[in-house]
Amino acid sequence: MHGLKVIFKKELADHFSSYRFLILFSLICMVSLIIAYMVSMTIKNEMKDIAKPQFVFLMLFISQGGLFSFVQFVAFFGPLIGLIMGFDLINRERNEGTLSRILAQPIYRDAVINGKFLAGVVTISIMIASIVLVITGLGLILMGVVPGIDEILRILVYMIISIVYISFWLGVAILFSIIFRSVTTSALAGLAVWIFFSFFVSLGANIVAKAFVPDAGPDNLEALLKQITIQRAISLSSPIILYSDATATIVDPTKKTTRSFVFVGPFEKLSSERFSGPLSLHQSLLIVLPYIITLIAITAICFAISYIVFMRQEIRSA
């Protein structure tokens, strides 16, 4: 336990004192503030002479400020935070010869990997919490709207999901840092995984769905539904899609499903009044619970693989 505390404090100090962290945090904070400012001014101008609707404060996170909303920004660029923080955590120390010196001390090997990952998660948590609090304060000043209890709870749940999501990419970066001795190779491998899940999964899902169901169209709704189902199933293999759908449903109470395309039958039309109002936080959590559990599971699996590989590796002094 003592060794874990030592590694944790050392890594935490390294993160907060590094220029890499300061530049990354400043850049993300600046973009987030620009998005929040643009959204706040738009909402303020559009609702100047009308009564403010319910959950208007959450629009800070889901409304687009220029090209994308804050939720979309974190979904797309959030992985870079974890990848940049972890791509050289192990191989850099191995190449410099400091890793063997650390293990020569009365510090267990598992304390090294656990301390590094835990320090990264805490750093990510502080970063996300700081940015969300700054955006919340900016929204209070510009919009003049105080968020309700349900809105605050939704923002807290969103923060927790975001921390788990970025921690998954931190685990991916640490895994490549353990597998590859070269820092450049581990960084490129992490970027390749991010590019694959960001672009090629959605593109591949569309191609595969059209290949399996080529005759889908407006005149063949059954085939169209099957095509969408196949495309959806393949797309959910991407952590980015899982995170985007989960957070969009949590932050937007009016969103009744994670699907963007929904067929409405006659019975659904008859009972549409039951679903006309916004969902409670409990109901939104029930919808996205499989997505949250999946994100937690793949984060744990990724770190477990990193742990096993690191514990079995032979470490020599450079």
Short description:
With 318 residues, the chain is mainly alpha-helical. The chain has one domain. It has helices spanning 2-17, 19-46, 59-62, 70-86, 91-96, 98-104, 109-143, 149-179, 183-212, 221-235, 239-251, 266-270, 281-312.
Indicate the overall shape.
Answer: globular
Q: Strand percentage, roughly?
A: under 5%
Average pLDDT number? 84
Tally the structural domains.
1
Helix content: over 70%
Number of strands: 0
CA-atom Rg in angstroms = 22 Å
* Main structural class: mainly alpha
Low-confidence stretches: 261-275
Q: Distance N terminus to C terminus?
A: 28 Å
Provide a count of the helices. 13
Strand/helix succession? HHHHHHHHHHHHH
Q: Specify the biggest β-sheet.
A: none
Describe this structure as you would to a colleague.
Helices cover 75% and strands 0% of the residues. Helix 4 crosses helix 9 and helix 8 packs parallel to helix 13. It has one domain. With 318 residues, the protein is mainly α. The longest helix has 35 residues. It is globular.
What descriptive keywords fit this protein?
globular; mainly alpha
Question: Can you lay out the helices and strands and say which pair or pack?
Answer:
Layout: H1 2-17, H2 19-46, H3 59-62, H4 70-86, H5 91-96, H6 98-104, H7 109-143, H8 149-179, H9 183-212, H10 221-235, H11 239-251, H12 266-270, H13 281-312
Helix pairs in contact: 1-7, 2-4, 2-7, 4-8, 4-9, 4-11, 7-8, 7-13, 8-9, 8-11, 8-13, 9-10, 11-13
